Amino acid sequence: MLTEAQARKYGVDTSHILRDGAYVWSDFSEFLVCYDAVAALFRTAGDYALLTETYLAELAAANTIYSEIIVSPDHGDRIGLGADAYLAGVSDGIHAAREKTGIEARIIVTGERHFGPDRVIAAAEYAARAKNPLVTGFNMAGEERMGRVADYARAFDIARDAGLGLTIHAGEVCGAFSVSDALDLVKPSRIGHGVRAIENPALVEKLAELGTVLEVCPGSNIALKVFPDFDSHPLKRLKAAGVRVCLNSDDPPFFHTSLDREYRIAAKDMGLPDAEINAMTRTALEAAFVDEATRMRLLARFDVQA
Questions:
Q1: How far apart are CA 24 and CA 3, in angstroms?
Q2: pLDDT at 305
Q3: How far is CA 67 from CA 11, 167, 226, 281, in A?
Q4: What pLDDT, on the 0 to 100 scale, is given for residue 256?
Q5: What is the DSSP letter of 11?
Q6: Which residues are catalytic?
Q7: Who's near 81: CB < 8 A, 6+ residues apart?
């Protein structure tokens, strides 16, 4: 496990966050603490290049052809590496993985909601001036219960003006109102999770009409007890209502999952046929934050594999 190797490299005791190869946390607040502790084991640009290349190689081995890596400039600054070096390491890992496996990847800069509007706005400004061709999107993640979406809307205006694709975490920890706020105030093309929209039929209808894509992660939803089990998860109901959905993995090692497992959950635990799963994958590629030439190449590759 790469985390254990990094802990040995830096002489860090991880017994409080890692037991029997699994990360230890009990609720969303503890998850954030655990996440930061693990992330602190990666300290140099080389560490992040290795982490990125390793992760993308694992995806490629499971026949994944495209991935988006979420990075936080604040994290690079917090660990003393600096946002530029952090981003450069991730970029190097993407290039190395593409050279070795053919997997395509892009970077989504994220603002961490629980650090407040000023830091999220600063993250958007960083993304806008990065001039890194791999940076194609902007996101806000973190503690959904902190502040109002309106407090962070300026960050998305900055990112939109810079030509970046927009996505936002909403409707997982918080209810349908957070999805409504995201649609009204951010107007993203995609929403991370969004599954609590099922609580409001009019909102589900609005999502379908707008064509907003929900990045659905059943494994993390169940791990966080958003829904008690996969039978009660609303993925199938959202899809049946005409909402555009795709399968994603959200911080996979922390939720004991992977993108491959999310696909297996959809097939085995939720009973979705191959044709519907393939349709969701096509939706993901259609909504990917890439230029149109790259999108066409990815869709052609997918059609050959499917």
A1: 13
A2: 84
A3: 31, 15, 25, 12
A4: 66
A5: T
A6: 172
A7: 43, 44, 45
